[in-house]
Design brief:
Function: Catalyzes the phosphorylation of the 3'-hydroxyl group of dephosphocoenzyme A to form coenzyme A.
Pathway: Cofactor biosynthesis; coenzyme A biosynthesis; CoA from (R)-pantothenate: step 5/5
CATH superfamily of one domain: P-loop containing nucleotide triphosphate hydrolases
GO molecular function: ATP binding; dephospho-CoA kinase activity
Number of strands: 5
Largest sheet: 5 strands, parallel
Family: Belongs to the CoaE family.
Distance between the termini: 31 Å
Keywords: ATP-binding, Coenzyme A biosynthesis, Cytoplasm, Kinase, Nucleotide-binding, Transferase
Radius of gyration: 18 Å
Structural class: alpha/beta
CATH class of one domain: Alpha Beta
Length: about 210
């Protein structure tokens, strides 16, 4: 019977470069699932979660094609913790179930290991689904600059998004591994290559850095 492969949880604050890092691991032949992509799937047209959202906030939350207007919803939930918690109660269980299904397939696949990429790996207890946690770390001022450039939001909105996430130091305290993504692409690729070599070790062989 084939031994299930290891799943690595990849997380980091907004605009830390999680998808970029995952794509670099993919260049080494490693499969990955992105919780953000799954989160979009569970609120797609026809999904029960979208119906619940529209019932709570009204038809203005969808566009003329029936798709969720994510920015409008984001403005609501980031301004009100109670609304954010309600939205999480609707979406997080559905996201988790789909992730579990995908990870189960991944654990029994042919790759040496797989990735679960999630900005809320710790906040939603998705860390319990993985064997090891990799944090992509960047200074907060870099995050703010990247968010403002990427999402065309104000500085205050960018700070509000960061404030709603786990503090940087708390995230780092729970990391098994860290990639620092405030340098160039060559540095990032080198860090990914080093970790890829470690993660290819069998589950029953301890990592050298973890050995006494």
């Amino acid at each position: 019977m084939t031994t299930p492969v290891r799943i690595i949880g990849v997380t980091g604050g907004i605009a830390s470069g999680k998808s970029t890092v995952a794509a670099m691991f993919a260049e080494h032949g490693i499969p990955w699932v992105d919780a953000d992509h799954v989160a979009r799937d569970v609120v797609a047209p026809g999904e029960p979660a979208l119906a619940e959202i529209v019932a709570r906030y009204g038809p203005s939350l969808v566009d003329d094609r029936g798709h969720l207007q994510r920015r409008v919803l984001r403005d609501i939930v980031f301004a009100d913790d109670e609304e954010r918690r309600w939205l999480e109660s609707v979406t997080h269980p559905r996201i988790r179930q789909r992730l579990c299904d995908t990870l189960d397939t991944m654990r029994h696949g042919d790759a040496p290991y797989g990735l679960l990429v999630s900005p809320l790996l710790f906040e939603t207890d998705q860390a319990s689904l993985v064997d090891r946690c990799l944090v992509i770390d960047v200074p907060e001022k870099v995050q703010v600059a990247r968010v403002r450039a990427r999402d065309t939001v104000s500085e205050s909105q960018a700070h509000a998004i960061l404030a709603a996430q786990m503090p940087r130091q708390a995230r780092l305290a729970r990391a098994d591994d860290v990639i620092e993504n405030d340098g160039d692409l060559a540095s990032l690729k080198a860090q990914v290559a080093r970790l890829d070599a470690r993660y290819r070790q069998p589950l029953d062989v301890p990592d050298q850095e973890d050995s006494p």
